[in-house]
Write a structure and sequence with these properties.
19% strand, alpha+beta, globular
Length: 170
Amino acid sequence: MFTYKSTLNPKSANTRSIESGASTHVRYCHHNWVTFLHVKCSKCQKRAVARLQQADGEPYSSLFFGDELKRKDHKWFIACEYCVFRKTSEDLSSHVNPFKNVGEFYYKIPKYNFWAYNFDHFLASYAYLQSRRDTQNIYNFILRAYFRREWLLHKKQLIKEVEKKYFPTS
């Protein structure tokens, strides 16, 4: 009878990581990047959409792109939702900063280093700050692992800043 012997470190074999093949491996894999962003338009400063395109020019249908080795062959298509600005940007990003040439994130509050990839990520992060969970949001599975500690430390002030900037009452 054949017995499989793991080549992994025995301590890591029982963890929920890529090496152990756990279903949550995307959460810990830093080779998975978002393919849909909201960035600030460089022309009018309003919200623009950035989509990572495949080598054939078609946008990705999935939210995450996991093939870091082929990523250098892809380009970002950026289109403003308010003006005529359109741009195709070479994806000269790196593992350290995968969105280097796309532009500035639209959803961000520099005072607390708060940012979000896109509106869905923003809503999930905002709900997390308020200790609410939107069960339908795709970003929920990564928030617990990657939610920045400084955001939680200043959550009352951050919630006020988010509401003031993105949900004005007047």
